[in-house]
Structure formats: structure tokens, C-alpha cells
Amino acid sequence: MSADKKWNSGADAADDDDDDGRDETEFQAMKDATLFAIEISNSMIAPPTDDDDDTEAGSKKKKNKKPKYSSAEAALRCAEAVLKNRIISTPNDMMGILLFGTEQTKYGDSGSNISYPNCYLLMDLDIPDAPSIKELKYLLDNPDELSEILKPSKKPASMANVLFAANHLFTTKAANFNSRRLFIITDNDNPETDKASRSSAQTRARDLYDLNVRIEPFFISTPTHQFDKSLFYTDILYDTGEDTTENLPTEEPTTDAESRYEQMLSAITAKQAPRRALFTLKMELGKGLTIGIKGYLLHKRLDPSRSHYIHEQGEKLQIVKGTTTRMAEETATEVSPDQIRKAYKFGGETVTFSDEDFKQMRNFGEPVLRILGFKPQSELQLWHNTRSSTFIYPSEEDYTGSTRTFAALRNKLLESKLMGISWFIPRRSAAPVMAAIIPSVEPQGMFTIPLPYVDDIRQNPEIPHIVSPNHLIDRMQDVIRQLHMPKGYIPSKYPNPALQKHYKVLEAIALEEELPEEFEDKTEPKYKSIEKYAGQQIQEWGEALSQAMTEFRLSKPAQVEVHGTKRGREPAGGAAAAKKVKKDVEGGGGGDADKEIRAAYDKNTLNKLTVAVLKDWLNSKGMSVAGKKADLVERIEDHFENK
């Protein structure tokens, strides 16, 4: 069942403002509509050459040779992979596949009067479902039927018609989508040679950009022909401030269709839909100096998609819309939302609050990022990071000149190695936090890091640490040196294995396939490589550790027992020693208890003592023991300060 608050009825309306339960995944990305436009020509459907593979691979690689595809088939398989991913990860996104340059012409339903010559709409722009993916998979598994569709026309398709067809699909199918993208996959760098056709194509491309449709090309080169985008595509690719026309790795010449498929899939999946701002608010640098900023959540743990109840009895599966009805426990009558109050218990009494009371309690002012002062960046400790940071960037929507002011502040903080300390309310009804503002070199901008309050800091128990001998440290350096990763950790190479298993199972069930028995886990250590490069060093270190541990047990048996058992050893004297301390406290004055409390006061470690010890000492002095631990500590501190 969905955990979304929309599942609940109006009785939970007040809960929607609860900051702790707010789901931030809605801010991660916009609804996206993607159309694959794949050119079909003799060169695009030509089988790949494998001369280079046969000469370089050797007999070992030939045994494990993977199937290779033509450029057009690689593009279709790439689209299939993206479809399978999107149907689970972002089920509300739209996708479509348009082939151009085909002998057959197909656009929309058979009864449609709209037609674009030599354009074949293989998959209409719509939310993908299992039947459409099955149909595409069937074509890819049946080369004869696929080749009938991929027959190139004698005359190439007009790019103006292709762009116009894409325009029609986006305006009729995805009119209200914030993100609309057109992927053009081609190896023809000059499809329009006459001036009139080029001008018409430029006009159609401009119309797409006016509709906020981004054209993202994937150019394919060959060993005999380097794709030159300046011949035609430079005129239809407009600069939108993104790296749309950058030289992608996919533009490099390649005859290996297998790697071409991998390049294609990597490039397309890397071009994710633009992220939507988590918040838009004002940033106050001082009295009368305000700029606009936007906040983005750059990193967030991705969890499996939510499940829903579905209705199976109709013509097709439908998501069930749930409602909540609240009943009175004693009378079993329905309770309307206006009859419900929230309450807290104070001292055994129930204090009720209305929705308006709760809103007032949560109202800490307008959303703002207000700078209070500056501190050296070195004072930000690792343990200060208790919550996710937010990336902030200037916005000119409400305050002109925000970018220059923001850039000046960022550059000065970088130059002086300073950080800002701010009062941060990201949105209405959110609890205010103190936040550090850290300048970022790349990406260019700044990060806000929520700082902990005193209530958020917990005292860890003091545990004696065993210091490793130097010869063990030296041997471990050899192990680390052998297992060093030159490029470090690259997140894009390691998909979450739990998510991948979840997606594979859902995919198999949706497409009515057999459940996979094994799942690829790229986080699994490469034990053979570890054994090859560091096996000897690891074995030597293990032997040295065993010898050092034996010597340590013989020299310090007390510490070994404390670390080897859950409770550790009782202090010398056993329970009698503990009782003696208790007796001194109850006896009223002096003794070990006074010395212990005084020593803790001098070391400023009173808060590390237990509440029982603090209360016993206060009782012995005839002082109040009411309140929380902080109140007890404060009374003891006042006692010694006034003494």
C-alpha cells in the first residue's frame, strides 16, 4: 500500500504540514517525456564488421563473444533498456519511438488522417506498459519481422517532417510536461542539402525549442567517416546553457557495435530529466540586502518504488484510490474531520489543540536563509553533519542582481576559507535550524549544512582504545598500497544491488518472464584480484596480528576481558565497591561521592554521570531532584560556583 499522504482522507490534512514526514522525492525530478527518433538507412542497418575483434581478441575472447548489433538495432535495444528502467523507477514518464527514413509510413492509428512520409511510429508517445515493451521485445527477438520494418526508403526522410512529427506528438500527448526531450540517433551528418529544406528544418527546430523541447543528439561515426555536426546539426541545436552539443564519447569512430550500444545506453541514461528546486526563498545577507536563491537535493538514498493496491476485476488493471473513515471506539459511529483534535499528555492530563493551534505552533516566520555571522571553515566538525545538505544557487526571478551578489559572497568565502552561520527555514511550517553555508568549487554554488542543537548531541560512553603496534600498521600499509583504486570510488559504476534485484523481479513479473535465479552485484569484492595482488601481504599481516594479540592477552588480561565480554568486568571489590559509593552518598557528606562529583565538576563532565548518581548526591545535600538531567547538572554547578 502506498505511503503517500494522498492516500489518506481529509482527516489527515493537518499531517501534510508535518515537516518530519514530508517526502522529498517529489522534488527530485520533473515528469519527463522522451521521444527516440532513430534514422533508418543502409549504413544504420548494416551488420557490424568484426575484423578488429577477431585480430585483437584472441581465442579466449572469442568463446565469450557477445552478440553484436547494427546501429539501428543497438538504438532500439537501448530504448528497450530505458523503457524497462522507466516503467519501474519513474512510472509516470512518457516514452515513444519514431523511426524515420523507412520504406513504410505509419503514424498514429490506422484511422488517423495525419501522415508524415517515411516516418514510422513504432511506439506512440505514452506512459509505457508491459504490452508495449513485450511488443518491442518480440520484434527484437524476431529479426525477420524487424527487418521488414527497418527497410530504408529510396529517398531519405525530410528532417523538417521528422521535427514536425515530434512537435505534434509532444503538443498532443505531453502538453503539460515540464521536461520534454527528443533524442535523435543518426550517422548522417548532412541530411538536408538544399537551402529551402535546411531553412524549413531550422524553423521546425526553433518551434520545438519555443515549446521547451530539448533536442539531444547521438551522433554515430564510422572508421571511414567522422561525423561532422557543423554541416547541418549546429544550425538546429540551440545553446540552452547545457552541454547539449558537447563532443560526447559516442561521437568517436567505432566499429564495435557492442560498445556502441553500451556508449549509447550510458549517454542517454546520463541525460536525466532536470531536477526541480526543493525550495525557492530569499537569502538575507544583512539589513536591507536580500537576494533570491533556489535549493536542490543533489544526493538522496533511492528506495524501492511505492507499492499500490490494484483492482484486477475490470478490463485492465487500475490503481485503487483509498479513503479513510475514523470511528469512535465506544459508540462505533463515524467521526467527521472537524470533530477530531490532536492532543499531548502533560502530567497525566490531556491537552487538546485545534488545527489552527498547531499551525501557529509551527509558524516560525517566513521561509528565509538569514546569515548571522561567519566562522572559519576549520571549525565545522565531521560530527556536525547530522542531516542531508542542500545545494543553493542564485535566482533572478524575484531579486535582480542576485547572481552577482551570490557569486561575490561565494568567492570571498572561498578566498578567506570562511563559512556562514545562518538561521534557516526552508519552507512554511518547517522547523528552523542553524545551518553552515559552505562555498563549493565544483559544482559552483554553496551548500547549507544543518547544524545540531544541544538536544541532538549525545554523549558516547568512554571506552578504552587499544593502540595497534607500529609493525602491524606498517604491514597494513603494504596491503592498502596493493589494493589502492587509482580512480577512487565512482558511484556510477555501482548500482544498488538491492534495488536492482527489486527491479528485476518486478520486470519479470510484469513481462510474464521467469524470475532470474542470479542477480549481478557489482559491489561484490573481486576476491581473485585481491588474492592476486595482496594475498601474500594479507596472510603475513594475519599471522602478525595473531602473534601480537597473543602477546597483548598475556600482558594486559584485564583490557582483553573488558573488550571480549558484553558487560565487562566488575570493578575491584565487586558489588561491595558499588555499595560503598552508595553508602557514602546516603551518609550525607564527604566521602568518595563528594570527591567524584567535585572531580566531574572540575573536568566539566557532570553530564556524563548517570541521573541516579546526580539525584543521590542532590538528596544528600537536601536539594531538589525535580527536572531533567540538564536541570540536575545545573543545580550542582550552581552549588559549587556559590560555595
From TrEMBL:
Main location group: nucleus
A single GO molecular function term of this UniProt record: double-stranded DNA binding
Sequence segments annotated as region (Disordered): 1-28, 41-68, 561-594
Transmembrane segments: none
Domain SAP span(s) in chain numbering: 606-640
Entries under SMART domains matching the protein: Ku78 (SM00559), SAP (SM00513)
Localization terms from the record: Chromosome, Telomere; Nucleus
Compositionally biased tracts (Acidic residues): 13-23
Catalytic activity: ATP + H2O = ADP + phosphate + H(+)
A Gene Ontology biological process term: DNA recombination
UniProt-listed Enzyme Commission number(s): 3.6.4.12
Uppermost EC category: hydrolase
Record keywords, A-Z: ATP-binding, Chromosome, DNA damage, DNA recombination, DNA repair, DNA-binding, Helicase, Hydrolase, Nucleotide-binding, Nucleus, Telomere
UniProt-listed InterPro entries: DNA_bd_Ku70/Ku80, Ku70, Ku70_bridge/pillars_dom_sf, KU70_core_dom, Ku_C, Ku_N, SAP_dom, SAP_dom_sf
One annotated Gene Ontology cellular component of this protein: Ku70:Ku80 complex
Family listed: Belongs to the ku70 family.
Function recorded in the entry: Single-stranded DNA-dependent ATP-dependent helicase. Involved in non-homologous end joining (NHEJ) DNA double strand break repair. DNA-binding is sequence-independent but has a high affinity to nicks in double-stranded DNA and to the ends of duplex DNA. Binds to naturally occurring chromosomal ends, and therefore provides chromosomal end protection. Required also for telomere recombination to repair telomeric ends in the absence of telomerase. KU70, of the KU70/KU80 heterodimer, binds to the stem loop of TLC1, the RNA component of telomerase. Involved in telomere maintenance.
PANTHER family documented for this protein: KU AUTOANTIGEN DNA HELICASE, X-RAY REPAIR CROSS-COMPLEMENTING PROTEIN 6
Name of the protein: ATP-dependent DNA helicase II subunit 1
Organism: Arthrobotrys musiformis
Gene: KU70
